């Protein structure tokens, strides 16, 4: 999935000038290292204090980076994307997918809520176990 099920999304183009410490943020993700179960894209994992991204202020942790200097990051490995950032030059333009603030609980500046680590499969197994216990209990009562 590419996040298309999220109804309120916002694309932002952000131009950053590489500073002494680079662009000032870390990334996670890629087709070889997905950080989200439903999306193998590239996500901002940390904004470094006083870095180019922090000084600009628009890039936030958990934003999805869609393109670097017009080149799509879709279906790329983590290493490929790191290399793209390394060779992107002094002025770097990012296309970023931001979620609408109305999808969060609390002020827009608050950290995003973490999703539960329990997967859909885990929930299904838990539900099947509960149904099994109910059926066994019903059969046991019937025999008495």
From TrEMBL:
Pfam families membership: PDZ
UniProt key word Magnesium: no
PDZ domain segment(s): 13-100
Keywords linked to the UniProt accession: Membrane, Mitochondrion, Mitochondrion outer membrane, Transmembrane, Transmembrane helix
GO cellular component: basolateral plasma membrane; cell junction; mitochondrial outer membrane
Molecular functions per Gene Ontology: protein kinase binding
An annotated GO BP: receptor clustering
Record-linked InterPro entries: PDZ (IPR001478), PDZ_sf (IPR036034), Synaptic_Scaffolding_LAP-MAGUK (IPR050614)
Record SUPFAM superfamilies: PDZ domain-like
Transmembrane region(s): 121-140
Protein localization: Mitochondrion outer membrane
PANTHER family named among the record's database cross-references: DISCS LARGE, DISKS LARGE 1 TUMOR SUPPRESSOR PROTEIN
Record note on quaternary structure: Binds (via the PDZ domain) to isoform 2A of SYNJ2 (via the unique motif in the C-terminus). Interacts (via C-terminus) with RALBP1. Interacts (via PDZ domain) with ACVR2A (via C-terminus) and ACVR2B (via C-terminus). Forms a ternary complex with ACVR2A and RALBP1. Interacts with MAPK12. Interacts with DLL1; enhances DLL1 protein stability, and promotes notch signaling in endothelial cells.
Protein name as annotated: Synaptojanin-2-binding protein
Source species: Cyprinodon variegatus
């Amino acid at each position: 999935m590419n996040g298309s099920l999220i109804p309120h999304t916002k694309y932002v183009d952000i131009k950053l000038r590489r500073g002494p410490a680079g662009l000032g943020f870390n990334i996670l993700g890629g087709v070889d290292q997905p950080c989200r179960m439903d999306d193998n894209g590239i996500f901002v994992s940390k904004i470094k204090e006083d870095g180019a991204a922090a000084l600009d202020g628009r890039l936030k942790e958990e934003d999805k980076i869609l393109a670097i200097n017009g080149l799509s990051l879709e279906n790329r490995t983590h290493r490929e994307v790191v290399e793209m950032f390394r060779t992107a030059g002094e002025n770097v333009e990012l296309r970023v997918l931001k979620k609408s603030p109305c999808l969060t609980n609390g002020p827009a500046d608050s950290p995003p809520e973490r999703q539960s680590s329990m997967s859909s499969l885990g929930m299904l197994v838990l539900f099947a176990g509960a149904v099994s216990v109910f059926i066994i209990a019903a059969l046991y009562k019937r025999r008495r």
